[in-house]
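Take just one protein record:
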Amino acid sequence: MSARLPPVDVPDMSDHAWQASKDQLARLWEHALLQDELFVQRSNFFLVAESLLVVAYTGILGLSLGTHGQPLRLRVAALVLAIFGFLLTTIWAFVNARQRQVLLDLHKRAREAFPEYRRTIEERKLPGGRISGTMLIAYWVPVLAAIMWLIFVIIAF
């Protein structure tokens, strides 16, 4: 036997209406947690990928400096890796910018929906403002990686 839901156009302040609101809040919180986890996982993916490319780049560049036979091929390979690393960093920056905007929107909604969350955020504010950790991860880490890859392109030339 299934329970019948009240018609949508009828305002109802019964337990069912309260439960639906509670379910909506739970979904909002879960969605915010999921998006935060996606941000962290994507950042980890790009950091690992960038690290592996740096290891490959330095290995190839080291081989090109130590060999006398075919250093040009190895330097070209190092250049290709540096360009690929720069392009990957550009993608990383765009993905992070979009994901950070989603997080900001969800955190705003969470502050409006959950008084205890709003109070916690307000208590953590420092005088004069503060630099957000997600802003550093979303923007500054990719910028620094892009600068590194540009320097690697110059070195490989």
